[in-house]
Design a protein that fits this description.
With 172 residues, the protein is mostly helical. The protein has four helices and two strands, in the order βαααβα. The chain is rod-shaped, with a radius of gyration of 32 Å.
């Protein structure tokens, strides 16, 4: 029994080729200039995991912003009934070093707004990275980029409007 001289030649008994890079039976053919086969996907492309994460962070941030607006609305509705009493509590807070209980919802709303901007920026970065991935679908990444971008711009706009209105009221 003789061994095949060229490993690219098929085995005479089995007929299978030893070298998978050269499946044809021509021992005199040259090797391809690009020895690796191109990557071919079998089936549909998968969604980008980072894009899905960006989309989920956008939804969580949206819920957090809505919670912040509700908390701030509760604060405003509590204060509008007795605004002078609240101002007196704030003055006492400065003198005594205590925190009025009516101030807690607005503090939570402020912290949630800051957290929502941070989460939306992280989601925006994840969406951009998910959008540039190769061989992945980009639907969730693009939706995450749009939603997180709108949330960052909208929340920053609300903060700026609040600061400008507070500055305008303090100068009057």
């Amino acid at each position: 029994m003789e061994e095949p001289r060229n490993p690219s030649q098929p085995d005479p008994q089995t007929g299978s080729s030893v070298n998978p890079e050269q499946p044809y039976d021509n021992p005199y053919a040259s090797r391809p200039s690009y020895p690796f086969s191109p990557d071919r996907e079998n089936g549909p492309m998968k969604q980008s995991g980072l894009g899905i994460a960006s989309f989920i962070l956008a939804l969580v941030t949206l819920l957090l912003v809505v919670g912040c607006v509700i908390s701030a609305t509760v604060f405003v509705s509590n204060v509008t009934g007795d605004a002078q009493g609240f101002l007196n509590e704030v003055e006492n807070m400065e003198n005594e070093g205590t925190l009025p209980s009516d101030l807690v919802p607005i503090m939570i709303a402020g912290l949630c707004i800051i957290a929502s901007i941070g989460i939306a920026i992280i989601g925006l970065i994840l969406g951009i990275v998910g959008a540039v991935q190769k061989n992945r679908r980009k639907v969730f990444a693009v939706i995450g980029i749009v939603l997180n971008g709108l949330i960052v711009l909208g929340t920053a706009g609300l903060v700026i409007i609040g600061l400008v209105s507070a500055a305008a009221q303090s100068t009057i």
